[in-house]
From TrEMBL:
It comes from Erythrobacter ani. GO terms for molecular function: monooxygenase activity. Its cofactor is FAD. The lineage of its organism: Bacteria, Pseudomonadati, Pseudomonadota, Alphaproteobacteria, Sphingomonadales. It holds the Pfam family FAD_binding_3. This is FAD-dependent monooxygenase.
Length: 408
């Protein structure tokens, strides 16, 4: 294919495909290159993970035209309950009725299906799946990727701006020689679907233990009325494999011990998976005709459920910068536009990353004294309407300098 498109997006996951669709709504064309098979990514049972979509991210989905297809799969997060080991001193975040929800929970599979179906119908997106990028080229004149797929001859796809959206192990970032600060938390997130006897009443629970947070996230009931939630349980690296290999009865007993009676009796568990947890943040998110978005630029602890939402903010900001430039005739790879994107997103993503890292370390301090101090602080926040509003606005993604696509 010889046409040069505005964007050359390497990585067609949730963030990369959102970027392509948002850009298309502004009249910008893209090549989206991904090594995965979309049929496998959207197959039943491939991925039992679920994701919290913030209020601002939901506005983005509405503005790019996929909200209607997702609406029926949404489970509202009406409030968030935070405890330290289920001891007294619970902290509750519940917005006023006119403020809406704190977010929505979606199965990852449904998010992928909505994005992929919209992309397949969008003529401004050339979606190339099951392709390996074997060479990346950038110069003052443009960007290109040489790809191989299906055993055929290599092909070259050209764009005016290369976007690295491949995730934490981004080869585009590494090939550009961008410095990255990172560390391993020596933790794993164990993820599973649960069924339980009590309704969750749209409450998301974050129960902190010294080994890491234990999160219970509301999901829609099954068709027969069975109550469901998604578990994200942080365990130490050495315990991760053992926990995933426990028999169902032993696993449910461990879950029940940590969650207490907040959801009643846990009745069954779905397929379990575990993922290593680490922190990384790049020194910069742009280069010559290059921009990084999502986990290619920053990877944070899932303690606050902001990882994907942070990447969606990147996508919305980049599209706004490029669209503003296009209106005055600037090329998508213009250095001044990339500098604006760098300044806009670099600090915000860094501050969110620092905040989640700080929370992880704060709640990881063991001992009764540390727990008592944390609960005293939580009680202070519980009594402060201003602080609670601040934290809720952060959770909903509606604070700071927002791109227009993230606004209602």
């Amino acid at each position: 294919m010889n046409d040069t498109r505005d964007l050359l997006i390497l990585g067609g996951g949730l963030v990369g495909m959102t970027l392509a669709l948002a850009a298309a709504r502004q009249g910008m064309s893209s090549h989206v290159i991904d090594r995965a098979d979309p049929a496998e990514l959207t197959a039943e049972g491939f991925d039992d993970r679920a994701t919290a979509i913030s209020t601002a991210s939901w506005h983005l989905f509405r503005n790019i035209g996929i909200a209607d297809s997702l609406e029926k799969f949404a489970c509202d997060i009406a409030s968030i309950a935070v405890t330290d080991q289920n001891l007294p001193g619970r902290l509750d975040f519940q917005p006023e009725p006119h403020e809406g929800t704190l977010g929505r929970m979606f199965p990852n599979r449904r998010l992928r299906l909505a994005l992929f179906e919209a992309a397949a119908d969008e003529p401004l997106i050339n979606w190339v799946s099951k392709a390996e990028v074997i060479e990346r080229q950038r110069s003052e004149f443009g960007a290109a990727a040489v790809i191989a797929r299906g055993g055929g001859e290599p092909e070259k796809l050209k764009g005016r701006l290369m976007v690295g959206a491949e995730g934490r192990g981004s080869p585009t970032r590494d090939a550009a020689g961008i410095t990255i600060a990172k560390w391993d938390y020596k933790h794993r997130a164990v993820i599973a679907g649960l069924t339980h006897s009590k309704p969750h009443e749209n409450v998301a629970w974050e129960i902190f233990y010294p080994a890491g947070p234990f999160a219970l996230l509301p999901m829609n009931d099954d068709a027969d009325g069975t109550h469901r939630s998604s578990l994200v349980w942080t365990v130490s690296e050495e315990d991760g494999k053992a926990v995933t290999k426990l028999g169902d009865r032993a696993f449910l007993a461990e879950v029940q011990k940590r969650m207490g009676d907040v959801l009643g009796q846990v009745t069954s568990v779905g397929a379990r998976s575990s993922w290593p947890l680490g922190f990384h943040h790049t020194a910069k998110i742009t280069g010559e005709r290059l921009a990084l978005i999502g986990d290619a630029a920053h990877g944070i602890h899932p303690i606050a459920g902001q990882g994907l939402n942070l990447g969606l903010r990147d996508a919305a900001a980049l599209v706004e910068v490029l669209a503003d430039g296009a209106r005055i005739g600037l090329d998508p790879g213009d250095a001044h536009l990339l500098k604006r994107y760098e300044n806009w997103r670099g600090l915000d993503s860094f501050m969110v990353a620092l905040a989640t890292d700080g929370l992880t370390r704060l709640f990881g301090v063991p001992g009764k004294t540390a727990s008592a101090v944390r609960r005293l602080g939580m009680a202070g926040v519980q009594r402060s309407g201003a602080l609670k509003t601040f934290f809720m606005d952060e959770a909903r993604g509606v604070s700071g300098d927002l791109p227009e696509l993230l606004k209602a």
